[in-house]
UniProtKB/TrEMBL annotation:
Gene3D superfamilies: Glycosidases. GO terms for molecular function: beta-glucosidase activity. GO terms for biological process: cellulose catabolic process. Belongs to the glycosyl hydrolase 1 family. Keywords: Carbohydrate metabolism, Cellulose degradation, Glycosidase, Hydrolase, Polysaccharide degradation. It comes from the Bacteria. One of its GO terms (cellular component) is cytosol. It comes from Streptomyces alanosinicus. This is Beta-glucosidase. The active site is at residues 183, 380.
Length: 480
């Protein structure tokens, strides 16, 4: 396609007819209104309000105030012309205690959101869990009925299935795609072993139990969603395209350990119905832990309609001594691996190297390794940049336009090579609360001024709009 694509004047990447384009967000990162209309607290409220946990003590109390400004934000989506919008439901808005009494005002909010999206011609893709576990499931309140323990206990997976059933019964007639979990790797390991995400724990066993219970939660939710007649069901993983720093045996062994921890702990049970075989005690522990019950792997490995993949950057690893003194932690994330950065290329403000071909390689690798691979959706891809509103009132984020152009071309190359990729969502519609990094990282194609909450579409927004228009025109030409 030869269309000039705006500020960088590079051609738009060619995508197959019918390929769907969208944008993504997550509840805690944009909604705010953390204590309004009956929403219960989540582990991210607790974590962000704990001193020292997030950059500058940032919280999601207000965030982008999307809870009150969703009509304006849907207007931005309509103007943009996206096919799909991926957002997450805040579990503690529907069920303030995680289980038990339902909050009608929470259901009403997502009803209105979904109806307005449909009126704007945008299909909803709903993530059920983007990290905001109801606090009552982590530590029970005096009045609460939950047992506590969070993802370390099986009851949380059972509560998740009830929540999934509630959401599917209420919204299933209007939701196109359901994503059970976003990046369970982060929930299990960043949250329970590294402690950099909520609930901020540094436990080996706890992290392994959480990993298993998250997978069980996924399996139970798939069953509940199917029973409620949900349309398409999948899960979103942050899979890594990994390299070893050298060909030496130690780095190659480190690479294998990282492949297991970052990718195979998730892809093997989900796509092959088994835990990865590895000599390392970690994975033996995960597979044989007391948390595993007969039938779990069949449940976890039930067929999916799609696999969501979030991709930002490749990772290169080298062998390193264990960092943790605690031997229990060594059986979880501290696997004797450290990241190095040999990438002589541009880096985003996250410090992440920009290497688009790594996305093609990741997708082709998945396709080659998994005979049962369902269709893939890129459910997040994007770039954090230093975006400021220029004197002309615009945000000239040409580096982001380059990033998105190159990664869409990388997806297109994977499709050409035979990988079944159905859609691509930009992370993110809005600048938002970037977890432990607070408001210091801007991923949006729309700028948010956190003092006034003014939204300013960046140049990348206008570029994406042009790309979507051109893609739709081309799809109409090729499909009678
Ligand atoms: C995704 O995570 C998330 O789904 C999304 O919510 C997020 O906004 C987006 O990517 C961009 O990061 O805070 O310094 O401890 C991607 C994987 C894992 C990247 C956790 C940041 C924490 C680094 N993320 N990691 S730090």
């Amino acid at each position: 396609m030869s269309n000039a694509s705006g500020p960088t004047a590079r051609p738009f990447p060619e995508l197959p007819a019918g390929f769907r384009l969208g944008a993504a967000t997550a509840a805690y990162q944009i909604e705010g209104a953390h204590d309004q209309d009956g929403r219960g607290p989540s582990i991210w409220d607790t974590f962000s309000h704990t001193p020292g946990r997030t950059l500058g003590g940032a919280t999601g109390d207000t965030a982008c105030d999307h809870y009150h400004r969703y009509r304006e934000d849907i207007g931005l989506l309509r103007e943009l012309g996206v096919d799909d919008y991926r957002f997450s439901i805040a579990w503690p808005r529907l069920l303030p205690e995680g289980t038990g009494p339902v909050n009608a005002k929470g259901l009403d909010f997502y009803d209105r959101l979904i109806d307005e999206l449909l009126a704007a011609g945008v299909a909803p893709t709903v993530t059920l869990y983007h990290w905001d576990l109801p606090q009552a499931l982590e530590t029970p309140s005096d009045s609460g009925s939950a047992a506590g323990g969070g993802w370390r206990v099986r009851e949380t997976a059972e509560a998740f299935a009830e929540y999934a059933a509630l959401a599917a019964e209420r919204f299933g007639d209007r939701v196109e795609r359901w994503i059970t979990l976003n990046e369970p790797y982060c929930s299990a390991f960043v949250g329970h072993a590294e402690g950099r995400h909520a609930p901020g724990a540094e436990e080996g066993r706890g992290a392994l139990a959480a990993a298993h219970h998250l997978l069980v939660a996924h399996g139970l939710a798939v069953r509940a969603l199917r029973a409620a007649g949900a349309r398409e069901i999948g899960i979103t993983l942050n899979l890594d395209r990994l390299h070893a720093a050298t060909d030496g045996p130690e780095d190659q062994a480190a690479l294998r350990r990282a492949e297991v921890l970052h990718n195979e702990v998730w892809t093997e049970p989900l796509l092959s119905g088994r835990y990865p075989a590895h000599e390392d005690e970690t994975w033996a522990g995960l597979a044989a832990g007391p948390w595993r019950l007969p039938g779990d792997l069949e449940l976890i490995g039930a067929p999916l309609d799609f696999l969501g993949v979030n991709f930002y950057r490749p990772v290169t690893v080298t062998a390193a001594p264990h960092r943790a003194a605690d031997p229990e932690l060594r059986t979880a994330v501290d696997i004797g691996v450290t990241e190095v950065d040999p990438y002589g290329t541009r880096h985003t403000t996250m410090g992440w190297p920009v290497v688009p071909e790594a996305l093609t390689e990741l997708l082709c690798g998945l396709h080659a390794r998994h005979p049962r691979l369902p269709p893939i959706w890129i459910t997040e891809n994007g770039s954090a940049e230093t975006d400021t509103v220029a004197p002309d009132g615009r945000v000239h984020d040409t580096a982001r336009i380059d990033y998105l152009t190159d990664h869409l071309a990388a997806v297109s190359a994977a499709v050409t090579a035979g990988v079944d990729v159905r859609g691509y969502y930009v992370w993110s519609l809005l600048d938002n609360f970037e977890w432990a990094r607070g408001y210091g990282q801007r991923f949006g194609i729309v700028h948010v001024d956190y003092d006034t909450l003014t939204r300013t579409p960046k140049d990348s927004y206008h570029w994406y709009r042009g790309l979507i228009t051109a893609h739709h025109a081309r799809t109409e030409e090729t499909t009678p």
